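Exam review. A common question shows you a sequence with its structure tokens and asks you to describe the fold in words. Practice with the pair below. Do the first one on your own.
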Amino acid sequence: MKLETKELNWAGNLEYRAIELLYPTSVEQLQEQVRTASKVRVLGSRHSFNDIADTSQTLICLSKMPEVIEIDDQAMSVRVSGGITYGALADALHTAGFALHNLASLPHISVAGAVSTGTHGSGKAHGNLATAVSAVELVLADGSQLSVDRSDPEFNGYVVSLGALGVITHLTLDIVPSFAVQQTVYEQLSWEKVLKDFDTVQASAYSVSLFTDWSGELIGQTWLKRRVGDAPNDDIDQGRFGGFPASTAMHPLPGADGVICSEQLGVAGPWSDRLSHFRMDFMPSAGAELQTEYLVPREYAVQAITAMRELSSVITPLLLVAEVRTIAADQLWLSGNYGRDGIALHFTWKPQQPAVEAILPEIESVLAPFSARPHWGKLFAATATELEALYPKFTDFIELTQRLDPAGKFRNEFLDRKVFGA
């Protein structure tokens, strides 16, 4: 359909420039739409805060494509339609007795969109969401279909692909047996004590999140998601790092209602209801917000956190909340954790975009000694030249893109600035 009204992203900070938005209902229709388009991008759940999904011509949304969830209990995998959300997939998998290894903080996001941007969950031993991908099915610029799996020597370039290679119609993901999780929130742990033994804190649960505004000596909230049946780690429970367990359901934003968050207070429940921070049936986080995130090698965790605390006078006035999480290394070419275990420094900003964008160069300058890589779907200042230096396979990805899409049908202003401008 021709766009006659404004189409905005989830946060409302971006108006898409495309002249039409198409909703294919079959792979065949999608192939024809892609083949005849001059410029095309895919619009997922609109949870990107920059123009990575935008284009000047044709946007395609896969939400009306047939929903596919095909479980192979022998191969321990599931084949899914790219437009499905993690919330819908998680419910279906749990009902069938299976699980994904991890979830992002929001179950509302589409699988293909999250995978394409290297979005992650949390856990010292767990890779980002894209590491579960074992096969990718694409519609290419000429309308043809392509399937690649881990046997392809370039497979790691196809997964975190920024939408530059084609339209992802289906993905095959690794699955594991379903498991139960208990979530407990602690308030006011000591920064001094946590930073003295950061690895112990991050290893204290299946997933650990530290929420802070970067000011003061205490961490606002620490969320522990513990897999039922795992060996207990009592360091935080016994007060080694200070603080105390919350007595009511908490929200990461101070003063916000914890009812919209995944169940806490140590009540055991399915992974599908606990690994994300927010419930599928509520607006997550603040709604009207902006986001930025940097992935830093784990060996620099303490230095990077200390640097952000020292920059509090610049950051805190514009901040709703920040989060620190841990992610395991992978081999996906454009992943923020390519070749290195890391931490994520996540910033949820007040909806004041000019002011936020004005301080991003300063934050990135402070984090530069730690080889910080920005999340592809959030606000950041780094140029293609700066990003090329951070990704050993950056040039290989450009070559792969140019081979699959020589006319640049899937290129847009974002890719020109952040990838091809190198």
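Now try the second one, then compare your answer with the model answer below.
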Amino acid sequence: MSITNFPLQLQAAIQQGYLAREFQDGLTSKLGFRQIADRENVSAGIGETITKTRKSLKTPVTEPLNPASNTNFDNGLTATGWGVEQYTLTLNQYGDTTDLNMVTSLAGIASQFLANAHTNGIQAMQSLDRLARNALFGGAMNGVGGYLGGNTRVSTTLGAAGTTISVDDIRGFQRIIYNGQVTPIGSGSGMTITIGANAYTLVSVSADATNTSTAPGGISGTLTVSGNNIAVADGTAGNAVVSSVAPNVIRPNGRPTTAALAAGDTLGIQNVLAAVAALRRNNVPAINGAYNCYLDDLQLLGLFRDADFKYLYRGAYGSEEYRSGQVIELLGVRFIPTTEAPQQAAINAAAGPIHRAIVLGQGALVEGNFAGTGYSDIPGVDTALLEMIDGVAMVTREPLDRLRQIIAQSWYWIGGFALPTDMTANASIIPTATNSYLKRGVVIESLGTDGLTA
């Protein structure tokens, strides 16, 4: 592209590729969550929701054929098919811009120009990484909830037995996979949930007008069941409410809810091993030989203080893990510290803030990139420089204001993240499989290390 419309001080930087390199340096400093995603190009337009379909396998045959039935054209066989399940991916546009006034920045125009590109790159990287994180923990708008979905607690004690309870978070209860399709919960497609100690059939979900959820990205609301009334003993504040198809959430010492976490409930190696066991039970493939565990540094510190961990590394004070303060790979898990792990203020002041790690296998997240990003149908019009870096468009526009002083430096990305389900990988296909829709990740909730919980 021609760069003659840009000042001479900037043309050299552009010609030598400094601009793209500054943007890319920021963009490739990934924080971790986005790297888990399987990427695919999508040709649909902005704001559209794409429905993806997965097929299941067929149940293994363990009974011999009856020789007496081996007749006619079908040889006594009845045709069977495989099931399907769907997940949705919504494409939206994200971006930001910054201006460079060439007159007021005259003394250091080139360095300011490159600094803007670098800052835009970091912002784009953090934005996409946070979108990936939010999809993992909170779920896509049209999906079945994220890996925190379907696992909450009663927020207000029932005054008398009834059909409706208030809960801290309705994510994961709003939709069900019915006949292979993601369908809003309703009387024709109910969901089995456990409230307290008993099972009920959920038929309606409603969000509160004022959100009071304590969970990161949570949505407080009410759940309505059909059939038997909810007993007061079950509908008591603090009791667990868990969907029969909820993802696995692990807490130290078997705590039933987030609010039940107590002092000393820090991350331990046994919690990580339990997450690995859950993934292996579902035959979730590893990522280059190990599962990825994203966690913050206080959870990692709790792991180093865990008695089982210290026993495992007894006498290994010279190991790389202890010298660097990081666990690279251990027991089939690759630990990846991140500052983007969801944080939650203390529910119980005596316990402290809640921290969340997530252990993921291959295929847990899909990133859809709009194939038309960076495309222009007006050939020959050269009013901007455009660089495509890792699916993100970096746009540098020449000064078009009346005084020809202001250069605009922008970035944008068109895409979305989705969580594919594995409902059809049930116990008839994989005998050890769980009932969860989302099987490729496990959340571990814990407290931070004593004295360092803030």
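Model answer, second protein: The mean pLDDT is 82. The radius of gyration is 26 Å. Full marks require stating both points clearly.
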